[in-house]
Amino acid sequence: MNICRFIPLFLGCLLPQLCMANTPPIDPHAERLYQQALPYLQQANTKLEAVPANFPTASADEKKRSQALVEEAGESLKPAIKLLEQAAALDHPVAQHRLAMIYVLFYPIDVIKEKACPLLERSFLQGFAPPALQLSSFCYELTNTPEFQTTLKAIATSAPAYVQYFPQPAVKLECRAEMPQGMAFQWGSSRDFQAEMYRLLGDSNRAQRTEYYQQAIAINDCYKAKKRLGLSQ
User: Fold this and answer.
1) How many angstroms from the chain centroid is the CA of residue 53?
2) Across residues 176-188, what is the average pLDDT?
3) For the chain, what is the radius of gyration of the CA atoms?
4) Mutual orientation of helices 93-106 and 28-49 as an angle, nearest 10°?
5) What pTM does this model have?
6) CB neighbours of 146 closer than 8 A, spacing ≥ 6?
7) Angle at 138 between CA 55 and CA 64, to 5 degrees
8) 214 CB contacts (<8 Å, ≥6 apart)?
9) Please, are residues 130 and 168 in contact by the beta-carbon 8 Å criterion?
10) Rounded Cα–Cα distance for residues 87 and 32 (Å)
11) Of the candidates 184, 167, 194, which has an alpha carbon nearest to the alpha carbon of residue 73?
12) Cβ neighbours of residue 149 closer than 8 Å, sequence gap 6 or more
């Protein structure tokens, strides 16, 4: 596999049991498969977070060490991919997202469009917020539809769903000013992703742009929304 992408939590509900009640039912076998994949995903993430931000321009020794970390992460991901593929086939939205993120991290754009985009779309249309960010970056043709906009608005304006599965990774959380470091993803809470939904709504709805950006700012002081409204330097 070739690398081609750089790679206390507020869950958004005071009563977790009420939040979970807003989560659509998930196939129990798919959930078991997803839970089995998590330790492997964590192992891989730990390795990737250890890759320094200056990896492309590092010394020969540092590049060798970084490449070893990436290869070790890839080995950890092999069993995770098998488990996630099975869970994704059973329409587990979070497994679909995490599997797609592996494709986004390790594969070129043509493979992302072929393999990741369908997974991201299926996950998002089940009301899971995180895939919207990668859909808008890598699968733009899937976002220029009434169905995408309807789902985006529904997720933004409803009580957070799937909160027990957060934090979740993104290549870049646009509401944060800081850039991703090295091979590490940026991780966000359900509230972080809700702010991103409002930001995306503002990006694509000129008539209500100010209203949506203000909602994003109210949730987590969204940097990109403030910049678009001329409220930050």
Assistant:
1) 20
2) 90
3) 18
4) 30
5) 0.87
6) none
7) 15
8) 225, 229
9) yes
10) 8
11) 184
12) 201, 204, 205
